[in-house]
């Protein structure tokens, strides 16, 4: 059309063609050839390397995880990006909101992996995720301060099913019930604990004390008796159980471990419920075999939801406002406007974001390499990481090349879909 000679066109395209051949075409051809060779790279083994991909459990796990990544990560990131983009049109500080959501994109995958390795730390004192989770759990179901407490030698308490402890004999009004326990180190007693002291009796009530029947030092203290150096079990629940097994009265011990039950407890047995000895809730094992892949996907979404939001917000800015207003005038509510007007008009942008993220997750490597600990890295394995391990750790270049070819085959349909979509957009 411009009269330019073909030789001149080729000359100008030559640098790009050379780079394309050196950085794309040659590596693809090299990987394809080596995928049919053995470990040494000298002998032809046919499809053995590809057969290995579908018989080795580790590689099958990587393949399964890749499918989970492709199904979940792009979809969740795109949906969140769409929600954020729509919300930013309705909040006062839209620019600041977009900046905060997009900011993780400025962090490298390596830094993000290190951050989330700390976020998912099992210890609630260190890991933010478990600190929040434990806080929510303890709001509704408080953990016991005495998970290791248990009756000692010659104790009047005997174990009951479910982890509770029951007195051997019924208690009587006007008598003091002694409930000695051991198993909690003195320095692990909760705040607010007071020294135990003998309890006075009350003719019309059942009184008693639950305390730590242990005194440091050889021969110190007397077993089964309250000593001045011993501590009471504060906040422990005590129940009076009748002959039919029903609870007739209950109370909670004071700071020194003392308690008082009404006359209804006369003739009943005392029970320390299992809730007194419940182990402290330590949160979720985010990086264990069950949750490691969703946890790593969560870190990816944290980074890329901002990318999706920015692209979708740009597309949303081009949506004709008169269409939205016309729908509202016709009686459509906001959900109907969003579902029937906004989303269909944004379909081309959503397709771009979804396809871009799908290609991106197929080659995910950094987060899976950094976040999971060694004990669960096999459970979080993906094809890109397995390619690296096969090539450099296991010294199997043939299998690594086969994995690279399989990854390429996964990407090709997505690329063809994108090309067809671009051509369709061009014809419009």
TrEMBL record:
<dbReference type="InterPro" id="IPR050809">
    <property type="entry name" value="UgpAE/MalFG_permease"/>
</dbReference>
<dbReference type="InterPro" id="IPR035906">
    <property type="entry name" value="MetI-like_sf"/>
</dbReference>
<dbReference type="InterPro" id="IPR013783">
    <property type="entry name" value="Ig-like_fold"/>
</dbReference>
<keyword id="KW-0813">Transport</keyword>
<feature type="domain" description="ABC transmembrane type-1">
    <location>
        <begin position="63"/>
        <end position="418"/>
    </location>
</feature>
<feature type="transmembrane region" description="Helical">
    <location>
        <begin position="300"/>
        <end position="320"/>
    </location>
</feature>
<dbReference type="InterPro" id="IPR000515">
    <property type="entry name" value="MetI-like"/>
</dbReference>
<dbReference type="Pfam" id="PF00528">
    <property type="entry name" value="BPD_transp_1"/>
</dbReference>
<comment type="similarity">
    <text>Belongs to the binding-protein-dependent transport system permease family.</text>
</comment>
<feature type="transmembrane region" description="Helical">
    <location>
        <begin position="341"/>
        <end position="362"/>
    </location>
</feature>
<keyword id="KW-0812">Transmembrane</keyword>
<keyword id="KW-1003">Cell membrane</keyword>
<keyword id="KW-0472">Membrane</keyword>
<feature type="transmembrane region" description="Helical">
    <location>
        <begin position="99"/>
        <end position="120"/>
    </location>
</feature>
<feature type="transmembrane region" description="Helical">
    <location>
        <begin position="399"/>
        <end position="419"/>
    </location>
</feature>
<feature type="transmembrane region" description="Helical">
    <location>
        <begin position="67"/>
        <end position="87"/>
    </location>
</feature>
<protein>
    <submittedName>
        <fullName>ABC transporter permease subunit</fullName>
    </submittedName>
</protein>
<keyword id="KW-1133">Transmembrane helix</keyword>
């Amino acid at each position: 059309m411009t009269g330019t000679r073909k030789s001149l066109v080729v000359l100008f395209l030559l640098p790009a063609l050379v780079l394309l051949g050196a950085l794309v075409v040659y590596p693809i051809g090299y990987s394809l050839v080596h995928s049919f060779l053995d470990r040494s790279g000298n002998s032809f083994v046919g499809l053995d390397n590809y057969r290995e991909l579908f018989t080795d459990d580790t590689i099958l796990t990587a393949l399964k995880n890749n499918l989970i990544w492709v199904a979940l990560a792009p979809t969740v990131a795109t949906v969140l990006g769409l929600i954020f983009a729509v919300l930013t049109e309705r909040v006062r500080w839209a620019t600041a909101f977009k900046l905060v959501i997009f900011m993780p994109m400025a962090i490298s995958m390596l830094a993000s992996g290190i951050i989330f390795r700390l976020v998912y730390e099992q210890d609630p004192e260190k890991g933010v995720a478990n600190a929040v989770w434990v806080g929510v759990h303890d709001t509704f179901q408080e953990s016991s301060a005495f998970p290791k407490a248990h009756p000692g030698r010659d104790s009047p308490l005997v174990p009951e099913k479910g982890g509770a402890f029951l007195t051997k004999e019924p208690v009587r009004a006007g008598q003091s019930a002694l409930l000695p326990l051991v198993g909690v180190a003195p320095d692990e007693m909760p705040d607010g604990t007071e020294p135990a002291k003998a309890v006075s009796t009350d003719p019309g009530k059942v009184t008693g004390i639950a305390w730590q029947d242990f005194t440091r030092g050889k021969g110190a203290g007397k077993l089964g008796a309250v000593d001045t150096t011993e501590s009471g079990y504060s906040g422990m629940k005590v129940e009076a159980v009748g002959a039919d097994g029903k609870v007739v009265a209950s109370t909670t011990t004071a700071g020194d471990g003392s308690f008082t039950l009404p006359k209804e407890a006369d003739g009943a047995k005392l029970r320390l419920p299992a809730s007194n000895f419940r182990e402290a809730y330590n949160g979720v094992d985010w990086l264990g075999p069950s949750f490691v892949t969703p946890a790593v996907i969560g870190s990816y979404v944290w980074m890329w939801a901002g990318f999706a939001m920015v692209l979708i917000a740009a597309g949303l800015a081009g949506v004709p406002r008169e269409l939205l207003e016309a729908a509202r005038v016709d009686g459509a509510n906001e959900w109907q406007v969003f579902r029937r007007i906004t989303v269909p008009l944004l379909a081309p942008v959503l397709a771009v974001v979804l396809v871009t993220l799908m290609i991106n997750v197929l080659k995910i490597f950094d987060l899976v390499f950094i976040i999971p600990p060694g004990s669960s890295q096999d459970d979080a394995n993906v094809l890109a990481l397995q390619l690296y391990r096969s090539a450099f750790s296991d010294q199997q270049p043939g299998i690594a090349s086969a994995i690279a070819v399989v990854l390429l085959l996964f990407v090709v349909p997505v690329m063809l879909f994108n090309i067809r979509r671009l051509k369709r957009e061009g014809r419009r």
